[in-house]
């Protein structure tokens, strides 16, 4: 019995070690799997077996393309990883290589953004922090802060859930800034839209 218990805890320790050392990219890649479709600003690591001069790390352009050795610009957005591997292999086999083996990994996913609109200094899209959650007031600060005519307590967040349902969340800024109620400074999710209305008084 003691021997079995020892084996059990040793197995747990090994599993914990594997999870600890797994890179965030590797975990994300496994979780997302081949269904993830490539988007602009993703960073791809592309390798061709036995052809080290063709291996490269490339960022997808805003036009949805990568520049790959021998092939030039290749459209990649909207493709899954396996589809891109097949596409590159076919293009290379057509004019350059015999039965090329292409492997693609996503090294870095495109930045996740929120949108700050209305009565702020610099309305627009802003990247969420990768290290920690970005809150409503932090996003507004990135947008240059409230404009003079802003109705700060009329601020709201429009969020589209995965189900497609749209939710509107009211943010009473004075509760956060004057009363110190930090819990009301809502952590944002990708594609949230912050609307700051104009005051008419």
Oligomer: single chain
Mean pLDDT, all residues: 84
> Which term fits the overall shape?
elongated
The number of helical runs is 5
Can you name the CATH architecture of the largest domain? Roll
SSE ordering? HHEEEEHEEEHEEHE
The largest sheet is: 5 strands, mixed
CATH topology of the largest domain: Outer membrane lipoprotein wza fold like
Poorly predicted runs of 5 or more residues: 1-34
Helix content: 25-40%
- Number of extended strands: 10
Radius of gyration: 24 Å
Query: How many domain units?
Result: 2
Strand content: 15-25%
Q: For the record, give the distance between the C-alpha atoms at the N and C termini, rounded to a whole number.
A: 77 Å
Q: Would you tell me the structural class of the helices and strands?
A: alpha+beta
| CATH uppermost class of the largest domain | Alpha Beta
Considering the protein shown, what is the CATH homologous superfamily of the largest domain? Answer: Outer membrane lipoprotein wza domain like
Major sheet strand order = 7-6-10-8-9
